[in-house]
Structure prediction request, 532 residues.
Amino acid sequence: MTARRLLVAAALVVAAGAVLVAPRPAPVVTVAPGDDAGALAERHPGAVLELAAGRHAPFTITTAVTVRARPGAVVGGDIRVEAPGAVLEGLVVEGGHDGIVVRGVDGVVLDGVHVAGAELHGIEVVDATVTIRDCVVERLTSPFAQGIEIRNATGRGRSLVEGCRVIGGFEGITSHSARLVVRANHVTATTKRGIAVGEMSEGLVEQNRVEGVRGAGITCVDMSHCEVVANTVSDVAAVPAAWNSAGGHGIATVYYSTIRARGNAFTGLEGEPLLLLTGAVEVDRFPLSHWPPGWRGAWLAVPVAAGAIAGLAAVRWAAGALAGRRARRRPAVRAGPVPAAVPLRLRWLLVVIVLGGAAVQAFHMLEHLVQVWQVHVAHTQNRSGILGARADTEWVHFLFNAAVLAFVVLLWRAGRVTGALDRRGTAWVQATLVVQALHMVEHVAKLLQHLDDGVRTAPGVAGHHVNLVWLHYGINLAVFTGIVVVTVLLVRGLLAGSPAGRHRPARQTDRGTALTIDVDEEPARPLEGAGV
Prediction:
């Protein structure tokens, strides 16, 4: 296959993939006051439901949709979410028993919701995982109300409560038998506990501000494991005639719980900064036993790597078979002059460029190894690799993979122009180009989804069906393996001083023997005395 044809084919693959996977904007459905938002969600899965201004009745979401509130929209009662991946944005809930309830599902997002005047819970999460950001919970009516409660979710993943403001209630943010991160929240005016990790929970509590509360600012109770870092706790009053843990303490650790507390600041306490009761212990090691789960979380790296390399080898075999078939159909190569040798300076320049590009791709492979560790080993909140944590992830990977595609084309052209790659090496570079072209289809789709919907980590094409981290780890490993193989073959050919194929023996073809000439041999001389 000629260089021009292969380049055109790769461009067509990327262009066709971009057209086929270009995201279609989710339909927007307006929900007027009096409409049943839950029924509309069932009829329009994947849609964006916008609540128009006015007072809406309580509803239940059983299909993955996004529900947004326009200015002036208020829901007068409980919202129940029973659909994995559902999103509530900017909703205002007034009254009701529990405000917003998420039950039995994973991946729900509550972004910028405001709950006021609920009776028992502002936000209740039962046997589920959620991401709650920038919420407000206030004016709870029961003396035993809880602002945000996450419970009975031991067998599920980790929930996140971040950037919320909770005012009043018996407890501000609390957990029971769950795993959670409580970060950068502001809790005030609670009557028993500001932030509570309880009943065999595992909690990372960091960078929160708890002030003007009674009882205890932060608690870790009932055989829980807690990492409490860089929180500010101030103005904590004791509860009269209550048990010892409610004595106005900054952090109270009770009943065989384990805590590590670091970098916390306390002012205006009536009790102790850190109280340990009934078998509770303070440790200097990370106390969260499932945080991370250990290297067993990365066991899939081995079969995924094996599958990726096997896939690359299969594409390389197909490319080699196609090249061999085309070679057998060509007419015999006639003897002729060998092209002039590539200048030494140009060869060394190509070697430096090729090795530098391979090193950059090695760093990109490291990015995906870091992602595997972040997601499947450490379960960190930052899951964007190294550079992705400091830049727009989709743009970083799109631009880099476009550069990788151009680099693979450069390897192929360098091998052809200099003759440093033989037919086998050409098959390897063609296979790598095919895989990287398909990879670009994924990133074109991811970027379009990112620009269209604002999704920080878009799924692309195959990401809807398989784990996104493992998918791109495998694809990048296949491309990296191909680049390493081609780099070794190309550098060896360039440093050998003569283009590959200059010393090839005669090749048998269907039309006869193809003659080649070795330019390093002197032309044959007539023997002395022989007739001419």
The two ends are 45 Å apart (CA to CA).
